[in-house]
Amino acid sequence: MRIAVMATCLGDAVAPQAVRATVELLERLGHDVVFPPGQTCCGQMHVNTGYLREALPVVRHATEVFGPVADGEWDAVVAPSGSCTGCVRHQHAMVARRGGDEALAVRAEAVAARTYELSELLVDVLGVTDVGAYYPHRVTYHPTCHSLRMLRVGDKPLQLLRAVRGLELVELPDAEVCCGFGGTFALKNADTSTAMLADKMSAVLSTGAEVCSAGDSSCLLHIGGGLGRLRTGVRTVHLAEVLASTEATQTPSARSLAAGVAAGVPRTETGEDPAADPTEEAPV
Amino acid sequence: MSTTDLPTPTVRPAHAPAGTGHLRGTRPFPAEARDALANTQLRRNLGKATGVIRAKRAAVVDEVPDWEALRRSGSAIKADVMARLPELLEQLEAAVTARGGVVHWARDAAEANAIVLDLVRAAGGDEVVKVKSMATQETGLNEALEAGGVAAWETDLAELIVQLGDDRPSHILVPAIHRNRSEIREIFLREMPDVDPDLTDEPRRLAMAARTHLRRKFLGAKVAVSGANFAVADTGTLSVVESEGNGRMCLTLPETLITLMGVEKVVPTWSDLEVFLQLLPRSSTGERMNPYTSTWTGVTPGDGPQAFHLVLMDNGRSGVLADPDGREALHCIRCSACLNVCPVYERAGGHAYGSVYPGPIGAVLSPLLTGITGEDDVNASLPYASSLCGACFDACPVRIDIPNLLVQQRAASVESHHRPTGQDVAMRAARVAMTSAGRFRAAEKGLGLGRVLGGRSGRITALPWPASRWTASRDVPVPPAETARDWFARTRPGRER
Questions:
Q1: pTM of the predicted model, to two decimals?
Q2: Which among A12, A91, A221 is the nearest to B485, CB-wise?
Q3: Contact (Cβ atoms closer than 8 angstroms) between residue B57 and residue B412
Q4: Which residues of B touch A89 (CB under 8 A)?
Q5: Final residue of a structural domain among B259, B288, B318
Q6: Are A189 and B383 within 8 A, CB to CB?
Q7: Fold adopted by A138-258
Q8: Strand boundaries in B367-486, DSSP class E
Q9: Please, are residues B159 and B187 in contact by the beta-carbon 8 Å criterion?
């Protein structure tokens, strides 16, 4: 399949390791991945903060950039994010209609019909649950709110994780409860957000997992930011990174890259190294 | 080209006027929540109570095989009611009148309160017993009656606790949810004149104390005031759904019964009740069926109150009905399932919302009813009191898309600004950056400067305001050396598309 990757603004600028992993995973599965260079943001921040008028040109831009999928130039668009996929699918047409642009709404719906979150693409479209990954770690999985309740991905991410060799999956208590991120909610209601984060962190810590995984870099930035602040020794890794990981990427040199990087979203120095996933637990 | 302005007679439905009732607090949600979050007893009481109700609700909802079909029916009935509300209300008025009741129309809270006060006075009473009612909480009826020399006694146990404690309700269904039984015992010992001084905090002892206290009120009062869960337009029948039996006492013992209800509570026929009487108790108290469902139609000679008045109140509802992006909020049947599943409500509690309608539905209903007057309106903060996690939609028995309503009310909040706020400026700048790949890349380059903040540790622990609100409790990873697009362009040249 010819698949366009929607990096998302956050994925491009702050969490590129999840985007790289998405590209590498799909290429490993034999697909042709393209990166539409005009892409910026889906507009979710504007929409969910109430800036529906400001969101309109952002939605228009995103619909133009990913429009070729509606014309059959690509077979699918994939985003390593439940909330950005949710915005495309459930909010783009609403923003367009509210702004009086029916043609844009119709076009946005056509793009949305072929835009998928990663686990949806893998399980529903590509029909694969064992992606040939190897990830020898104790992992707990947080189902992000928008993947769970906007997209209804259900247990697709868990199906994928259960098929990963070496991975020990531990159930997260109260998994379906929000981590408290909520986009600008984390800033506008920082105290309540932190109270929610505290409960999510204690649930994560109760599992004894080394890695907390999820399908949204934004939520992982929040959970990982809290786990890192408290030097818990638990790090956050995007589902795409787990699935992209193989024996080849779990080399000593790959691990050394991660040394010194604390819990949270890991940093990689260059794009050359295949180590999208640092595997050493961070020093605490 | 010229246009001619014709003097088109337009009546814009009014919002609930400020000044009367309890639809607006005094401080914005984040400030109220900050204080509430520090109240450890509140956190403990709420966490425990909402957890228990959530588990009970989940169990009794899961056992209903056609729950989703019931939700869709409830939603469809409400959509039908909203589409022909004027017609149904007139039908209700005619049916109530035909059965010996008297119908009054109140445009707002002040009119509703004045009508009730006049009726109580005309009935010769100086005190009333009350059935738990959100409508009368909304209008501040108790205070209005007190100002008019009439004492109002709340008879629902939790409302009684709130009233005796000189407190405010913090939950639609369980208004004293923020209190535990030790606190309740203290309130009873302090405020009930003839209470047993050896009262313990055993639930049964507390309930018996309340029962003794209330029994005298039931037998003495000549007038009762209630709200309504439903009003059947077809027959003029009113219905109250409750658990304790206090409502049944109020609805049957006094000579005069006055019911105050919001106009959106009407349903077309009895068969519609069949849907809601299944949805409501399971969603609210987590019971298969509530213990007391009272229905009454006008006046029945020799049985029950011999005078019945129905006050139909608008108080902003027509304005909500006129708003296509908001009218779904009127479908609410006040079950409070959305409160119990909301992670924000569970931690901040009901008082933080200011209005008598807290939680996710309150965060949209309150600003819809009052309107948002500008950036300084405390109700402008309510739609933001949510992480948009969507748990409320899944719990709602009539499938109100609360997350979408929250977004629409955020838009109403933004569009009410009289002058640009810092947030407005930031969002405009973000829009400019996000509508061009070139400008977006330039912004990313600026973000890359953040690498110096992290030093060699790989994390940033402090940032200036407003990002300090993030770094107060979470680290930030140092921006990566290479964006995803640059990595792709470098490693896969010519394959961007």
A1: 0.93
A2: A12
A3: no
A4: none
A5: B318
A6: no
A7: Rossmann fold (3.40.50)
A8: 459-460, 476-477
A9: no
